[in-house]
Specification:
With about 190 residues, this protein is of the alpha/beta class. It is about 40% helix and about 15% strand. This is carbonic anhydrase.
Length: about 190
Amino acid sequence: MTLFREILDHNKNFVETKQYKEFLTTKFPDKRMVVVTCMDTRLVELLPKAMNLSNGDAKIIKNAGAIVSHPFGSLMRSIIVAVYELDADEVFVVGHYDCGMTGLNSESVITKAKNRGISDDVIETLGHAGIDLTRWLTGFKHAQEGIEKSVNIIRNHPLLPKNLPVHGLIIDPETGRLDVICDGYEVESSEK
């Protein structure tokens, strides 16, 4: 049985036995918060438990490294929609120790893409189109660096209110311990 078929079979049973009922909630986050975090598999259940989040409490946006790489990219758009359309009042950027984006080597990623069938012509065409894959596929030296950059982009976004608390945290992917990188309340009160 393929993974795809296994998922569909499980889903059919999930719906037929009404297991979905325990997850019913609204589209509005009960704790009025947005969490930007990493896609790391260790955080799927650990992060919500470590932050005392239940289904429906927060908008959770995941990507590699919890990185907001562009102020007008899709991740930033999601934050803006959560704030203005879904009533989120705070943003938490939560990176983690031992992140795969730490020291990410763009040449390694490009080589692996080529090994899986992406041609040199495609790589060259992207370069001619102004896409710097070396820069785009680069991570950070330390998780704290990535968090600080993401917090800075969100905090200074021209379409977000200046009094929006934007917090930066690092979670230990083994214990769930949260270390504060920046407290959005402190920044907000120092700007008044």
